[in-house]
Amino acid sequence: VRPRVWVSQPLFGDIVGRLREHFDVIETAAVGKHPQDEIAAMLASCDGALVTLNDRIGAAEIANAPRLRAIANVGVGYNNLDVPALTQAGIVVTNTPDVLTETTADFGFALMMAAARRITEAERWLRDGQWKQWSFETMLGGDVHGTTLGILGMGRIGQAIACRAAGFRMRVLYHNRSRLRADIEGTCRAQYVDFDTLLAQADHLVLVLPYSPAVHHLIDATAIAKMKPTATLTNIARGGIVDEDALADALESGRLAAAGLDVYEGEPAIHPRLLALRNVVLTPHIASGSLATRRAMVSLAVENLTAALGVGPRAGDPPSPVNAAALGAQRKPGISK
Ligand code: GLV
Ligand code: GLV
């Protein structure tokens, strides 16, 4: 009997279709967040799953899924998955790093620039019919070139943003759990500083760190109070890193010049105070969303799932496992625990 895999929402059909070579594929037609009991019901009969950040999977969702051996997340961030619980159960988890790095860095840079130069605010004003005459003082923003860029989280995406900053002759400061090797710092022309120095010196602060409970509301009122009032804050990581109430306070009072947000704590719901503010650029979690990159992400996830289920050219050796430990202790096919 062929292993069965669940694809949790419509993805590129021509790419996902490759799974049919080895597996029975069940595709859910509905887009968005599925009820947790529906997720559990789907996993109950499956050997593998191709999921997105919409799908939260932990101990409860796999409790009745004895055959489940692999979950391929289409995305680099995997805070939707309880990796320790899945590892414990012998389920291999994979993500899609690398293929989205440059596209996501492009978008982070664009969002930062849009916030600093008030691009979407100016466009809304123009479309509103408010542009009656050209004036010297219309929509004055802050500069990007020659300023100090602060990058919080210096993984692959952070490094790619740092490379872009060189073209704008920016000084690049970063903070990260661990300091980069000196040769990588050299390539990125980035200087390591502590968190408070990063907050105090950045003209533009960009968040690119993975979410974990340890960084929940890391950017709160206390952190924002340490930033320059002329600074911008851009978040392309995860919404939960920023205390949105504190951010709205700061944007309202002029304690912070502007923000660019692609991610939100309760997405797709947006904090009503952020929606009402002019000095924040709001986009719907699309930083990795070029057509080519989204296709590459699905392709990599398909390759990961196939390999993690022990078939195809890389059987047993998925390109980007998150919990390499589980590979050695993976559940055996079709055997209940
Ligand atoms: C998207 O947010 C991702 O983590 O890939
Ligand atoms: C994750 O955010 C990365 O930097 O690859």
TrEMBL record:
Region of interest: Disordered: 312-337
InterPro entries per record: D-isomer_2-hydroxyacid_DH (IPR050223), D-isomer_2_OHA_DH_cat_dom (IPR006139), D-isomer_DH_CS1 (IPR029752), D-isomer_DH_NAD-bd (IPR006140), NAD(P)-bd_dom_sf (IPR036291)
Gene3D superfamilies: NAD(P)-binding Rossmann-like Domain
Keyword Transit peptide assigned: no
Keywords: NAD, Oxidoreductase
Domain D-isomer specific 2-hydroxyacid dehydrogenase catalytic positions: 17-311
Domain D-isomer specific 2-hydroxyacid dehydrogenase NAD-binding: 109-287
SUPFAM superfamilies: Formate/glycerate dehydrogenase catalytic domain-like (SSF52283), NAD(P)-binding Rossmann-fold domains (SSF51735)
Pfam families xrefs: 2-Hacid_dh (PF00389), 2-Hacid_dh_C (PF02826)
The UniProt record lists the keyword NAD: yes
Similarity section: Belongs to the D-isomer specific 2-hydroxyacid dehydrogenase family.
Protein's name in the database: D-glycerate dehydrogenase
